[in-house]
Amino acid sequence: MMHMRTLFALAICVVPLIAAEPMSGWRGNGTGLYPEADPPLEWFRKPVGAMDGMRASALKPKGSEHGDAPLVVKGLIPEWLAIGPFAVADSVKDFDRDHLGGEVTIEPVADEKSAEQVWKSLIAPKDDMHVFGTAEMPFFDLAKTLGFKPNQVGYAHAWLFSPRGGKVRGIVEHGHGFKAWVNGKKVYRSPQRGSALGFYTAISRTELAHSDPESPRFEVELRPGWNRLLVKLSTSNKDDFKDMRFCLRFMDPPDVKYESKNIAWLTPLPGRSTSTPIMHGNRLFVMAEPDELLCLDKTNGRVLWSRFINYYEALTPAEKQAQPAFAGKVDPQIARLTREKERSKRLSLRAELHKTLVGIDAARFKLAADGHFESHFGIVGFTMPTPVCDGKHVYVWSGMGVAVCFDLEGKREWITRIPDEALSYGSSPALVDGVLVVFQHGLFGLDAKSGKVLWQQKRIKNNVAALQGAMAGGKPVVVTQRGDLIRPSDGEILYRPKDSQSAGDIGWAPSTIIGSRMYQPQYGVTSVTITDLKELSPAGDPLLVQKIALPEMVSRGPDGKSWSDRWTAGSPLVWGGFLYQADIYQVLYAVELATGKMYYRREMPLEGLTHYNAVAMAASPTLIGKHLFLCDNQGSTLIVQAGSSYRRISQNKIGTVMDRKWPIPAQETLTYSPPIADGGRIYLRGEGYMYCVGEK
Fold first, then answer.
1. CATH number of this structure's domain 49-256
2. pLDDT above 70 (res 686)
3. Across the beta sheet with 443-447, what order do the strands follow?
4. Are residues 613 and 379 in contact, defined by beta-carbon separation less than 8 angstroms?
5. Which CATH code is given to the segment(s) 4-46+261-323+361-693?
6. Per-residue pLDDT tens over the stretch 120-146
């Protein structure tokens, strides 16, 4: 499958606890288990705007109530009435001709005529969680029903029900001309093509370029109750684009008011990240794209310090002194970037800074990103690797190929760049026996005190999720995502599973290591190999304890014939004699370890979003107190009772609205990393904010 490498990188992870070292990193504490924590089981942050409870209908309402009209999910109108086509001499010059004999007052009825044409009921495309890796937005294509010819127009009409009314924002991309009326008032008009995104792959490319193009938009005040929406589309008047389609999303404006419960604090962050926050004492360490580490006070969310990790920071003092342009041009730009807080201005400053650096030394500063990496950068990024803290220092590995060590006050101890011919998805590092082990087209071992490269192991060619530390046969080892055991002192391979060297995809999630037991998922959730690392065989092999294989039916579609790969980006959760896993399609599996029996398989009522740069569910299941916490990427956290039966306790939502530039859901992406817990609080990493859930 062409997009599998993306999901490798989504296994958000780092390092389990080793011996007595006070590590924090992958899943917060190495296991995803917080049995002593006691946070609230209910919380929310709810926008109270015109979109709250919005419904839509293609059919004319019979009364003032919404009845059984379907909800508007993620801002998309689910059904329309459409009519056309109407031929024109020139679709640009004749764009404003009224073909309905009253565009501003029309209230169409299905199967009835206007201007000798019949209004037809159409179902619009939606965000389909089960279409993995889709690259194109959900365009509503009238040409599929009306046919396509140059110089023609068509109409689509829908009714919108807003319980409280108020201001909404419409963001649209259209293949050629597009015009919109709400309650008879013109709110948008363009006789030409309007597009800034087009494909989800552009999310990645614009982020890499530090650019922020805007799709066409309009704002309108909806009245409480029913509202009429009419749109008009045209085809091109030239022999070029063959479009008669649009993608329109409605969303609350970013200044919408909120109601909240049990949100102790939230802190705005300078960029997104799929890495997991880590904790030591009263400090939280959080990554932000493309190159920042922030230290927050976990009691109130205040930013204590932040540091950059990039190619420029990795220059030696001698290298900086040898090039006067660094001090004359680059340093002032960095100073302005550090002071600036507004997002769009920061993007401009970053674009300017990158241009300056490449102009000074292209060989050193130009990003070695191929097309595949560029297309998936919007979900992976450079900061996917989770830092690791040993109680005295924080170690960061960037997807740029830069490793750095800071003390807890933000003083940099060392920084090392590992050059490579091409960028790869960053793996979370492992800190084992005084060696920081990182992956970049091979393994590298760095002295944790100095950052000096001690060794390179080129035979490990596949590892895009995480490295972990463990004890095997009484000695410290590094465990790769595929289960290889590596000696940290010199990089020697001590053990390789049979299919570790396979070039194909065998899984995206790292193992869970608890004590001496390693629970290694393979081929998604369908297979887990359990080994014991305490005593190795004479050949150095771990002891095989058990192999768990889920019934084949879990991978079959509703028809019993089609196949659905049940991939997972999250590691197993092991607790109370059960192993829990969640696949990317928001299905939870519970298996009894003693027997290998699957006790239940349950589709969770979550709201995740899937496309080329989004996965509906990637965060590993987490145990907090006596409950499983399960997060999608759209702000929902489902809490269920741990045990042999599925029992829902609560479902919580942080519905922060982002200031979107494109017709993608306004909901903040939250969360790709699992929650971490501490006493009566939990911490969630969102696209734009860090959240603390708990009593104030």
1. 2.60.120.380
2. yes
3. 430-432, 435-439, 443-447, 453-457
4. yes
5. 2.130.10.10
6. 999 999 999 988 889 999 999 999 999
